[in-house]
Amino acid sequence: MNTSPIAAADLVSTFDLTKRYGDHTAVSELNLRVPEGGIYGFLGPNGSGKSTTMKLLLGLISPDAGRILVLGREVDRRRPLPPGSIGSLIEGPSYYPNLTGKENLQMLADYLGVPGNRVDHVLAVVGLSEASSKRAKHYSLGMKQRLGLAMALLPEPRLLLLDEPTNGLDPAGVAEIRELIVALSREQGITTIVSSHILSEIEHMADTVGIILNGQLRYQGPLSGLHDEGTIEFRLSNPAAARVIFEAASVPYALEAGVVRVPMMEDTRAARLTADLFRNGQEIYRVQTVRKTLEQAFLELTDPATLAPPAPEKHTFFAPFTNAQPSSATRPSHTAVFGGTQ
């Protein structure tokens, strides 16, 4: 179990959050840290626990274990946040189909005690002013999503929770909703948690991401951290003979098709290693860095096979050749969990 420290600016924090349904564990020891400001992308395949987590954060369901802090307050079903504290769109918008978009918002405004002028404002923000007098049942899917966003924005929340907000939309609709979410974050400073099972959607929006698989948090940190981890490849005149040099330097390595691969390291350390190879008679034909693409990193993290308890070599960077572990300087700074929960 790995619990991330709480930052003063975290708007949402969970502590070993767990939810079970019978024998099925939907969320397992989840430790989310959502910083204030920006967009937090909550990524994972369908059925990975994203919607359950959203409902837990809202206090719609109670956890079996763990704690939740939202906006500095402890949350569960017995102690939900006051109405309007959080704007949410979970599993699609809820509305009265025979009422117009504006009438739906006016009813919600009355319930929340929100001034009536907010209705016209949020309609303009989501681009529904011209369609405000149309019955909601005649809205397109994209317009219904916009209506749901308008409802979520009505009480001027500090935090938005959006569960798969682009699900089912055509490419144009996806782009429109994505642009709207980004604009809300940048222009109004609303912290937003957006869940999705599609990497490309989150890639265009999020500052920070959490990746969940089978209820377990697999990665949490900046989006760029997903593909920071990579390797350095050495193409040498005698790769097999170079093994002694890498072992003497305590550098994990792998030999594949005449190329020696080592973990990413600082430039100065790589330069010393290159010089050692040259001094020991190696002709160096090429040295290059190879980084994972964002898609490769995401697919590896969401591969169910990686959830099984790994063999020892899984924890050694290139264990088939050496038992040396990467130094602290070569480990990525983000929080990533392989074969465990966080």
UniProtKB/TrEMBL annotation:
Drop me one GO molecular function for this one: ATP hydrolysis activity
Q: Which PANTHER family match?
A: ABC TRANSPORTER, ATP-BINDING PROTEIN (PTHR43335)
**Ranges for domain ABC transporter:** 12-239
Q: Which UniProt keywords apply?
A: ATP-binding, Nucleotide-binding, Transport
Entry's family note: Belongs to the ABC transporter superfamily.
For the keyword Metal-binding, the answer is: no
Q: What is this protein called?
A: ATP-binding cassette domain-containing protein
